[in-house]
Each structure stands twice: as C-alpha cells, then as structure tokens.
Write a structure and sequence with these properties.
heterodimer; A: 240 residues; six-stranded mixed β-sheet; four-stranded antiparallel β-sheet; B: mainly alpha; two-stranded antiparallel ribbon; 77% helix; disordered N terminus
C-alpha cells in the first residue's frame, strides 16, 4: 500500500427502499468524496428524492448500507443525521412561514448545535438579498427568496455535506441563473454537494460527476464532462 | 353537558385545519403596531383587580372562575396553538394539580405556599410519564392516547377511596391563611373568598407572564417550527419528540397550578372535575378565543363563563345556544374571537387612514 486511499464522505451501498409495499429503490450504490459536487440525474419518480430521504432517515432503508465517514447511519433518526453533518434542502423548499428570515436562520443554528464557519453574517454575505429581508416573515417571500433562505438555513447547521433536492424546480429562468451562481460560490468554498435534478443543463453546469437514475437503479455513472460533450449519450440516457 | 361534548369533539377534530386557516391572520397580527402601544393586558388585570370592591360577591365568584380557566386554557394552547398538538386529556393534569394541592392542604395540613408549587410539579411529573408515550404517536393517535391517560386518572380518582375520597371526593379544602392581607389598606373588610380571588389573580398573572416568555423565547420558536412542519424541523437537527415532550410537561405543570387554585376556590375536589368532558370544555374555550393568539384562550374563557351565566338565566338550552355561537364563529371567524376583533380593528384602521 503505497497510496492512502481517502475514505469517501458518503458511500451508499446497495440501497433498497420502499413506501409500504411499493418498492422504489433497487440496489442504488453511489459515493461522494469530500469537496465534490455529485449530481443524481433522472426523470420524475425514478428515486432521486427517495434516495435523499433515506439518507436523511425519513425512510429507513429495507436493505443496504449508508456509510457516513465510515459509520453506517441507515435507520438513524433525522435529527441525528442532521447533527452528524448532513444538511438537507428539500424539494418543497418551504421555510417556516410564521418566522422572520432572521428567526428561520436562528432556529436552524440552535437546532443543529454544530459550530463552524457558517454564521448569520457568513450566509448574509453569500446571499446578499437576505439581510435586506431579515425582518420579513417567511410566508411573504418570493419563490426564489425562499429557496435562498432554505439553503442559507441549512448552512446555519454547518453541514459537511449538502443534499440539494431539485433546487431549480418551479423557479423562473432568471432566478435559476442567480441560484446557479450562489451554488457555484458554495462549491468554490469547498462545500461537498449531492444534487438531485431533472434539469440537465442546471446539473451539468455544476456537477463534477453524474449518476443517472432510472427506475430505482443506477443506469450510468461518469464525469459530468462526458455527458456534457456527448449529445448522443445524453439523449440515449435521458431521452428528454 | 351531553351536546357540549359532541360539539367539542367536532371542534377539536378540526383544530389542525383551523390552525392552518388562522396562520395568515396570525402573521399579520405581528406586524400590528398601534394597538400594541396600548397596554391592554395591564388594563384588563387592573380592572379585574377591582372586582371585589366594585362588584358583587357573585361577580367575584365568576371572575375567579374566569381567571383560573384562563390559565388552564393558556396551558392547553401551549400544546394546541404553539406546538400543534391536539390533546383530548388536558383535564388530567388540572385534576392532578387539584388533588395534590387538596390532599396536601386538607389531609396533611401543608401550607399553600408549599402545596401550590407541589401541585404544579406533580402534574408536570405525570405529564412527563404519560407524555413519554403520547409523543411517540402522531395526530389523532396522540389525541386518543391523551384521552386514555386522562380516563386512567379519572378512574383512580373515582376508586382510590383512601386517598382521593373516591366518589365522595375531598370536600372542605381549607383556604390558605390570608390574614396578612388585613395589613394592606382597603383589604381589611374583604371576605376570605375575595382575598383568595386577589391571590389567584396575582398568581395567574405571574404564571401567564412566564408562559408568555416561554412562547416568545427561542425555545418557543422551535415549538412553532414543529407545529409548522415536524419533518422540516427534524432535518434541521431538532429532536422533535423531545421538544414535544418538553411542551407537554410545561403545559401539564401550568394546568396543575390552575387545578390547585380551582380546588380551593370551589372548596373541594371531586372525581367529576377530572372527567373527560372537561377537556372538551377547555378545548372549546381555547378555540373560541383563538388559538393563533396568546390572549385568545383567556378571552375564550371569559366569554364562555359569562355566556354560560347569561344564557342559563333565559333558557335551559344552554348547549344549543353555545353550539350556534360556535358554528357562527368557526365559519365566520376562524381565528376565534380575538382573530375576529383583530380583523375588525385592522379594517377600521384602514377606513380611518383612507
């Protein structure tokens, strides 16, 4: 052994999951290394969200392992997973409507009980629109503002891995553009990201590596550049 | 009481729905400015304090009932409005408080200054035990389990003759010694009942201030996030069950304090006080007043106690009238009485500004 192999931050091994009797995941395996941006691509209903919910502990897997820095966290309760350092930005991106922007962030910081570089000041710097809105109730924000607040709120927990579930869904093109800039900035700062997306352009603009999911299994895996350059392969895999 | 019970169950079952509908109103409420500058709360407490001098004995009796129910309803609203938990068995903690205080004072001659906090602690302790199981279930199952625990408490109160007096209850619970009040100018001529009312008012004021503080604290904000969406709260790292249990214990403790006051006020504790229909009554008060507002439940308590009085003077079909009032309120003002007043106030302001 001349080379020390670095352990992946997150390694999912042969994950099976089901909602009641309907099985959704059939042996999904993937891994995310520290500092990487990995994208789960696939159409609606192929199991992207289910994979993320299983990692977060909302849907205990029926088989397989979820290794977080080498520890199997399959079956942990969601708040334990969050405190272990996995931050989840859910697809519905709903903020706490009755709390102000500042209160949303404050609650998250208290809940996670993890110290780190992400403070209110730091997230305000990343999302300059938030300090202007700090006193506003979450319910009065636009879709794009809510998405930024959701990401900022998750960052307040100082996660080591960010799970982003369909961040671009339902947002206007201009807002998606702005979001892209913000997520890129996050990535540049060294944040490890696992992204679930339907939008090919959005995900290929961000990801280092791509997993294409189909009917609950991994259909393809490779560097994002390969998919970006090969139109034929893209059409073949995603038939969008 | 029969029809009230039925109405209460219907009302309680729609509480989460109601909560959602009042959220918007509550959000706007926080932006209100003008009415916040008038110290409504202080004014109301001062007016309440004059009742023994300006009112009749009967007024003092009604005011006592209102003040005690106000604390009880606020403690329930910590679960219902703040945390989003519907409890059908909140009377159990009220009852335990009444029994603990009553038994300590009557059977063991313990002074009120010890028996009163003990009642709160006893109720909180039982809330800790029952809540440990309740928060493991969600929604309707949670509600049903709270009901089950409250029926257990009732059964014990009804059957454990040696301690609770069983069917006969615990009559003639002594008043605390309030002779010291004679030293205060103007208090000399007050009856013991009036003095106890003033003590009750002061204690409830302090208790409400504490609950208010809790609701507005970061801890209270976490409870709000859980009500909003427990799942979302969990992935921020919030231990949802632990916080729900904490809210349950605090609510139980304050219900116990209200119960302790009630036992002394009504000069006895009886198994009837713990019967589950009482949980329904307090649910009605809370929803009637408005669960989206801290001062909703006290207003609900005042209105219900007063309505009960007025209506029974005219007709024996009190529950019929109550049902009609509730119906109008639920459809017309989903934010309860306070929600309706808030709406009216804002409309008025807009009219004056225009």
């Amino acid at each position: 052994m001349t080379m020390t192999h670095q352990e992946p931050l997150l390694a999912i091994e042969d994950l099976h999951a089901a909602y009641g009797l309907s099985r959704v995941l059939f042996g999904v395996s993937l891994q995310v290394d520290a500092g990487e941006c990995v994208c789960l691509l696939g159409r609606n209903g192929v199991g992207k969200t289910t994979t993320m919910r299983s990692v977060m502990g909302f849907l205990p897997p029926t088989g397989g392992r979820i290794l977080w820095k080498g520890t199997n966290i399959a079956g942990w309760s969601p708040h334990r997973v969050a405190r272990a350092g996995i931050g989840f930005v859910p697809e519905d991106r709903r903020i706490f409507a009755e709390l102000t922007v500042w209160e949303n962030l404050d609650v998250a910081a208290r809940a996670a009980k993890r110290d780190g570089k992400w403070t209110i000041k730091a997230v305000y710097e990343l999302f300059p629109i938030l300090p202007e809105l700090r006193g506003r109730r979450g319910g009065f924000l636009s879709g794009g503002e809510q998405q930024m607040l959701t990401i900022a709120r998750t960052l307040m927990g100082n996660p080591e891995l960010l799970l982003l579930d369909e961040p671009s869904e339902g947002l206007a093109p201009l807002v998606v553009e702005a979001l892209l800039v913000h997520i890129r900035a996050l990535k540049k700062q060294g944040m490890t990201i696992l992204l679930a997306e339907q939008g090919v352009d959005f995900s290929l603009a961000l990801a280092d590596r791509v997993y294409v999911l189909e009917k609950g299994t991994i259909r393809y895996t490779g560097p994002a550049g390969e998919l970006r350059d090969d139109q034929k392969l893209r059409n073949h895999l995603l038939s969008l | 009481m029969g029809p009230i019970r039925a109405a209460a169950v219907t009302v309680a079952a729609t509480a989460p729905e109601l909560r959602r509908r009042t959220t918007a109103a509550a959000t706007v409420r926080r932006r209100r400015a003008v009415s916040d500058r008038i110290p409504w709360v202080a004014i109301v407490f001062l007016v309440m304090a004059t009742v023994p001098w300006l009112g009749t004995r009967y007024d003092t009796f009604l005011a006592s009932q209102i003040v005690i129910d106000a604390l009880f309803a606020v403690s329930l609203n910590l679960l219902l409005g703040t945390t989003g938990l519907v409890s059908f068995g909140h009377i159990a903690y009220f009852g335990i408080g009444a029994y603990v205080c009553g038994i300590l004072m009557k059977t063991y001659g313990v002074p009120f200054s010890v028996a009163f906090p003990a009642a709160g602690l006893g109720a909180a302790l039982f809330a800790l035990i029952s809540g440990y199981f309740c928060v493991r279930l969600i929604k309707l199952y949670f509600a049903m389990l709270t009901l089950a625990f409250s029926q257990i408490v009732w059964a014990i109160a009804y059957k454990w003759n040696a301690v609770t007096g069983g069917d006969q209850g615990l009559p003639e619970i002594p008043y605390p010694n309030l002779d010291w009040m004679s030293a205060i100018p103007g208090f000399g001529d007050l009856s013991i009942g009036a003095r106890f009312y003033l003590l009750t008012l002061a204690l409830v004021a302090v208790a409400l201030a504490i609950v208010h503080r809790i609701v507005r604290s970061p801890f209270g904000r976490v409870l709000t996030t859980i009500r909003d969406n427990p799942e979302r709260a969990a992935f921020l790292g919030i231990n949802v069950r632990l916080y729900q249990l904490a809210a349950f214990v605090i609510a139980g403790g304050f219900a116990g304090l209200a119960g302790a006051l009630y036992g002394i006020f009504s000069r006895g504790v009886f198994a009837d006080y713990v019967f589950w229909s009482k949980s329904a009554e307090i649910l009605i008060m809370t929803i009637l007043g408005g669960i989206g507002y801290f001062w909703g439940p006290p207003v609900g308590a005042a209105v219900l106690v007063w309505l009960n009085q007025v209506i029974t003077d005219y007709t024996q079909y009190w529950s019929f009238v109550l049902g009609a009032v509730l119906l109008v309120l639920l459809f017309g003002f989903p934010g309860g009485i306070v929600g309706g007043l808030d709406l009216l106030w804002r409309r008025l302001k807009r009219l004056l500004n225009a």
